[in-house]
TrEMBL record:
GO terms for cellular component: plasma membrane. It catalyses: [(1->4)-beta-D-glucosyl](n) + UDP-alpha-D-glucose = [(1->4)-beta-D-glucosyl](n+1) + UDP + H(+). One of its GO terms (biological process) is cellulose biosynthetic process. The chain crosses the membrane at residues 12-32, 38-59, 353-371, 377-395, 407-429, 449-468, 480-501. The keyword RNA-binding does not apply. GO terms for molecular function: cellulose synthase (UDP-forming) activity; cyclic-di-GMP binding. Residues 507-589 form the PilZ domain. Pfam families: Glyco_trans_2_3, PilZ. This is cellulose synthase (UDP-forming). It comes from the Bacteria. Keywords: Cell inner membrane, Cell membrane, Cellulose biosynthesis, Glycosyltransferase, Membrane, Transferase, Transmembrane, Transmembrane helix. Residues 165-383 form the Glycosyltransferase 2-like domain. Its main location: membrane.
Length: 730
């Protein structure tokens, strides 16, 4: 960014700060309805508090985002790379899930792979996990009667290992091959005096290869980034400025010495990672968050799991910040203030409720919440509002905007307010809940959770009618601001209802867009194509021209990828014509259906090929209000039928000769198994056709195809061709 752009950004932030301070002071001293009764007074103070807390949080946010910095990865000699222990924590997750994660771990690059020690840390002490560890030749650290949840599991692993660096992964987080090479060198950072920095941990983003609920349920998986991207790629990196990046518990490399200095992973809290990170920073360790995605996992795929996760995060944050250990810790004042803004964030949901309720109270129930004139709104509120949104748009690099923050907050606020309040007054939640990690084929409908939103929609509509009448009949121009406020809130509430309606998930695994050269091995032929998308159980192969690939015959697919050659087996599931090319959907199969097969080298290589890549989901926000409404009204009501065609259907529309009678016949289409002939009234039980005339292929000119009548339909007469059995050379 050039100096001119930096100057403009600083000027904008200064103006935003000035107008916000003026606005908040005006609100506190001149607009609270002291003489309108106790209900108005409470509502007015609540709105002022919400706006004041929002302004404080926004100011901290601006400061962090205006100076996003992280260190450059140092180059170090190969012999300096230390021993590393990789902990994959599991409680109740499936063998299938752990198989993919461990497979990713053992395929991570490192100068000396004997220095990388991978462990399954299983606090359920399951025999199937022990067997998986033996099969994949990794360590197993089982634990029975664990009373400290994930913290106890990791602490047990720390006691039984010794490497100076520790990597922590959740059970679903599959690392990419360059994970260690892109993180370990940070522990050799040097300060301005040339001395090694005391690095505590390196936090990489928690990224997800499946669309999160906000992307999926709202039909916007091609238009909005994952909801967590904003935090991990911007907010947490901005926290480097105050040495307060949050330790998220997974996708992290952490110093053993740092952990030992704070007594291991913190117990007695439901967010052990958050509390541990604070303790490490309080001990003087430098900690960094970096934006490069190096591992991908599964986002929660039902609303109940999502809410449990967010409630745990929120309550854990409140628990930690309320604790006297935080207040009297050696964390710097800047660091403590930075973490206090984390606490303020969890009151966003109460603020959202206040913002939705305030215009309804005034218009429907006559409860005054703000004492002001139209002139004051135009000259004090409007500049502050415009500059706030401009600043957020400039600083957020197109990952998040104010509208999407409001949509997300509106969706979940009814289920966050009470848990955060209870935790704040000391009513604690001490039970750790594991977020379910699976992908189910079902309609993810949670409409019962939309009851609060429906109530607010009805009252907002009533308020909208009253407000509209006030503008039109009473010519009250000031009500236009209230009208705008109501319309915005109504839009957010409608999006929340769309979210709760859910969406059918047809897939039991995620697919990734790709561009990999491939060869289909069929008998003695090699058919070249490109894999356009790939998943752990299948792939889509694009061919330049249609090919006859029997769907009832097993085929072999040869894949060349980063120096590896893999041959997998499969069957054609469906064929579609896409942009004048042919897309073949292939289902992959393996010799063994068990994940503990010792000789399952092909599955391991194939899974690594599938998951060692960036996810295919958006990295930037391209959604618009029109697109959001279109997707949720039009796309939601489309009947999305999956293709059942197993052979390519060629549109021929050509006159050829029936070699039996030498008469002309008009071929409408052909799919290597059936041929459709135009019905001219001369029905024939049998035809003899030159295949080369149909598909314009010189190599097929000598193949004569016998066709027997199958049935008639409104388009013509359908003949069965028996490809490969009744076709013969002249």
């Amino acid at each position: 960014m050039n100096n001119k752009s930096l100057t403009k950004k600083k000027l904008l932030l200064i103006l935003t700060t000035i107008t916000t301070v003026i606005y908040i002071l005006w609100r506190i001293f001149f607009t609270i309805p002291f003489e309108r009764g106790i209900v108005s007074l409470i509502a007015g103070i609540a709105l002022v508090l919400a706006e004041t807390i929002g302004a404080i949080e926004a100011f901290s946010h601006y400061k962090n985002l205006s100076s996003i910095k992280y260190p450059k990865l140092p180059k170090i000699e190969e012999d300096l790379y230390p021993e590393v222990d990789v902990f994959v924590a599991t409680h109740s997750e499936s063998v299938e899930l752990l198989y993919k994660t461990i497979n990713g771990c053992i395929n991570m690059d490192y100068p000396d792979k004997s220095k990388v020690h991978v462990y399954i840390c299983d606090d359920s002490n399951r025999s199937e996990m022990r067997k998986l560890a033996e099969t994949l030749k990794v360590g197993y650290l089982g634990l029975s009667d664990n009373k400290d949840a994930k913290a106890g599991n990791i602490n047990n692993a720390i006691k039984n290992t010794s490497s100076p660096l520790i990597v922590t992964f959740d059970a679903d987080m599959i690392p990419r091959r360059d994970f260690l090479m892109e993180t370990v060198p940070y522990f050799f950072l040097k300060d301005s005096n040339g001395e090694y920095e005391k690095v505590g941990f390196i936090q990489t983003p928690q990224s997800f290869y499946n669309p999160d609920l906000f992307q999926f349920n709202l039909y916007l998986e091609n238009n909005i980034p994952n909801e967590q991207d904003y935090f991990f790629k911007e907010v947490n990196i901005g926290r480097n400025r105050t040495n307060t990046p949050i330790y998220a518990g997974s996708n992290t490399v952490i110093s053993r010495r740092a952990l030992e200095d704070v007594g291991g992973i913190t117990t007695g809290t439901i967010t052990e990672d958050f509390a541990t990170g604070i303790k490490i920073q309080a001990k003087g360790y430098k900690c960094y968050s970096i934006p490069k995605v190096l591992a991908n996992g599964l986002a929660p795929n039902d609303f109940k799991s999502l809410i449990k996760q967010r409630q745990r995060w929120g309550r854990g944050c409140v628990q930690t910040i309320r604790n006297k250990d935080f207040l009297f810790s050696d964390l710097s004042l800047r660091g403590k203030l930075s973490y206090v803004t984390c606490l303020l964030y969890w009151w966003t949901f109460l603020r959202r409720f206040i913002y939705i309720l305030s215009p309804i109270l005034f218009i429907v129930f006559g409860i005054v919440v703000v004492e002001c004139s139209l002139k004051e709104i135009l000259f004090i509120w409007l500049p502050s509002y415009i500059l706030y949104n401009m600043s957020l748009r400039i600083l957020s690099s197109n990952i998040r905007n104010q509208k999407w923050s409001n949509i997300v907050d509106t969706i979940i606020f009814p289920y966050m307010i009470i848990p955060i309040f209870l935790e704040s007054i000391g009513i604690r939640l001490n039970k750790f809940a594991v977020t379910p990690k699976n992908s189910l084929i079902k309609r993810n409908s949670e409409i019962k959770y939309a009851i609060p939103h429906f109530i607010l929609i009805i009252t907002s509509l009533i308020a909208l009618v009253f407000c509209f009448k006030d503008v039109v009949i009473n010519k009250n121009v000031g009500s236009i601001v209230l009208l705008y406020w109501l319309v915005l809130n109504l839009y957010f509430l409608i999006m929340a209802v769309f979210f709760m309606i859910g969406r059918i998930n047809f897939r039991d695994e995620e697919r990734f867009y790709s561009n990999i050269n491939v060869k289909i091995l069929l008998d003695e032929n090699e058919i070249e194509g490109i894999i356009s998308d790939i998943s752990e159980n299948g792939m889509a192969i694009i061919l330049d021209k249609p090919e006859y690939i029997p769907y009832d015959k097993e085929i072999y697919i040869k894949i060349e990828y980063i120096g590896e050659s893999i041959i997998v087996k499969g069957n054609v599931l469906h064929v579609d014509k896409v942009n004048n090319k042919w897309k073949y959907g292939i289902k992959i199969s393996f010799d063994s259906n068990s994940y503990d097969a010792v000789d399952d080298d092909i599955r391991m290589k194939y899974y690594h090929l599938v998951y060692d890549r960036e996810h295919s989901l958006p990295k930037n926000l391209t959604s618009t209000t029109i697109k959001e409404l279109y997707n949720n009204i039009i796309r939601r009501n489309k009947n999305n039928k999956l293709s059942k065609r197993k052979l390519p259907r060629l549109e021929i529309n050509k006159i050829i000769k029936d070699l039996n009678t030498n008469e002309d016949i008009e071929v409408i289409n052909y799919n290597y198994e059936y041929i459709l002939i135009k019905n001219t009234g001369k029905e024939k039980n049998e035809l003899l056709i030159n295949l080369g005339e149909i598909i314009n292929d010189e190599t097929s000119n000598n193949i004569i195809m016998k066709c027997e009548i199958f049935k008639k339909n409104k388009l013509g007469i359908l003949y069965k061709t028996y490809p490969g059995t009744i076709c013969s050379e002249r």
